[in-house]
Amino acid sequence: MKKLLKRILALIRQIYQQFSSTEKPSTPPSYHPPETPIAPIPTFVPQWENGLVLVCSQCTVEQFSGSSHRINRGTTASEELQNWLKSRLKFDGLWGKYRVVSTSCLGVCQSERVVVVLHHDAVGQQCFIVSPQDEREILYSYIKQLNQ
Predict the structure, then answer these.
(1) Which of 25, 47, 69, 120 is most exposed by smallest CB count within 10 Å?
(2) 85: closest CA among 35, 142, 126?
């Protein structure tokens, strides 16, 4: 233990001597950005350029776990709404112009409802809080209306 303390003390003295022997005052090193430009991240225009529909996958999992809001074995009302929207868009020939994606919690859950965010070029971003069974037709008619 004494040897270790002596080594540490010797290192401290050596560091002190290095800093005290320099003639110019020490300044913190400054940051210099790299000389070469950083390569840009590639971008692309997605096939769903008209709209993106985000369906919260956590709303019905947290609110209704073990309740009647499980449509099929292992399927939640959020998943059912997402699958229903996908099938309707495909049926009406709008799949590809719109994309339906599940997302994690958006932080605005309400009892027995699902949060859906619609991003569309014409209206920007809108957030809906819908009943997954009762209001899905109204939500879809709004999405379809934006495409006309």
Answers:
(1) 25
(2) 142
Nearest to 57 by CA among 132, 4, 145: 132
User: Considering only CA atoms, which of 76, 133, 65, 131 is closest in space to residue 102?
Assistant: 76
CA dist 77 and 64 (Å) reads 9
In which region does residue 56 sit, left (phi positive, over 0), alpha (psi from -120 to 50) or beta (all else)?
beta
CB 143 within 8 A of CB 53: yes
Q: Which two tokens stand for residue 97?
A: 């112009």
pTM of the model: 0.62
- Nearest by Cα to 79 from 136, 126, 119: 136
Contacts of 122 (CB under 8 A, 6+ apart): 146
Bridge partners for 95 per DSSP: 98
Residue 59 pLDDT level (bands cut at 50, 70, 90): confident
